[in-house]
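G., the chain you wanted modeled:
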Amino acid sequence: MPPVSVTDAQRAVLEGRVRRRTTVQAPAQRSRIVLECADGHSIMEVPRRLRVTADTVRTWRRRFLERGLDGLSDEPRPGVPRRITDADVERVIVKTLEEKPKNATHWSTRPMAAATGMSQSAISRIRRAFALAPHRSQTFKLSTNPLFIDEVRDVVGLHPDRPEKALVLCVDEKSQIQALDRSQPVLPMVPGVPERRSHDYVRAGTTTLFAALEAATGKVIGSPHRRHRAVEFKKFLAELDKEVPAGLDVHLVLANYVTHKTPAVKQWLPAHPRFRLHFTPTSPSWLNLVERWFAELTQKKLKRGVHRSVQALERDIRNWLADRNERPRPFIWTKTADEILDEAAAYSRRISDSGH
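Predicted structure as tokens:
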């Protein structure tokens, strides 16, 4: 198989596509493949380094050898001749990624169509083809915890390599769960019309749910409390001590809350040496699997629930918990600590390069 060699001019173009922060991912990935091959990496090494298939590497390697940089563009497709050129597509992509319309935070299809002289349907097709969704946004927060790396490896390592003769329990509190009663009766769903409820409600009080998710089985030990203090957390620890069979060590995954580190809790732990605490870093609460269980509870039971008293709310929570424990399903952890840390590093680099 002939080696891949690139000229200085070709390398400049390829590296420019890779470095450009807002570049479309397909050309960037193809450029990375060619650069990796030109740097002497084998067809078996490149898929592992770039997380692509070997067939993908062979395809773009061959296309570059045959046609140079032109070979990295998509092949023309059969059908009616195109009326929108590659330059038109690039203009839409560049405007979407690098410019903002006047008096707006992002481009919608109508202003983009007016600015480029294309139809709205053409703009929509280009967006779908390149997975551009300017109307959507996501939030993120990077932890500033100096122990971030160590704590990520510690918590994530508990899932694939669970300690022998031990339980891994993911523990947290869902505080300020409100008992809400609608001001008017809920109108049930009928064909063609969704369920309807009044936008206003009557507050009947709040409760806090302490929960411990067993990572291996998906079973949950839960206990509602009217207050959210270290006293209640210590009571919950005592409850866990009773529930977990003797002879098993208990590894608790916990958030870095003050209530988990009070003197009372610190005094309780030496008296119960089988309990070992593993704290998640500040900010990424999703590292604690019980948060996923809380989301399921909220979506399936609390979000549209109607409760006229805290007692009714707590009864509903206990019933839902008991029903789910009859058919528990564990959440399967898939990402490694290295993958999580690599993503955090990528976000950090983007922040550093953003000029803020």
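The mean pLDDT is 87.

Shout if anything looks off.
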